[in-house]
Amino acid sequence: MHARARAMTGAELRDWGLTEVAYLRPLPYEGASLVAIYAADGTPVAIAEDEASAVDAILEQDMVPTFLH
After folding, report:
1. pLDDT at 13 (0 to 100)
2. In sequence order, what are the residues at sequence separation of 6 or more whose Cβ sits closer than 8 angstroms to the Cβ of residue 13?
3. How far apart are CA 58 and CA 24, in angstroms?
4. Environment class of 60 (CB within 10 Å of its CB; exposed 0-12, middle 13-18, buried 19+)
5. I need a labelling partner for 67 at 20 to 30 A (CA). Which of 8, 18, 22, 27 fits?
6. In what order do the strands lie in the sheet with 21-29?
7. Are 65 and 24 spatial neighbours (Cβ–Cβ below 8 Å)?
8. Helix, strand or coil for residue 59?
């Protein structure tokens, strides 16, 4: 896998995982604790009420949830 990544063009590397991985990140909002969902390229995709709902939404799209810190 690492050899593949080294051989990728910038555009290929940027798009790598776009349809496979989604990232979760806590999103404080007006005293509530929401969860933001981002595409692999950092594009905001959705906001969920809690982590379980966010993970369910990602899994429904046949994607892998990953956490950002």
Report:
1. 59
2. 5
3. 9
4. exposed
5. 8
6. 44-48, 32-39, 21-29, 64-67
7. yes
8. helix
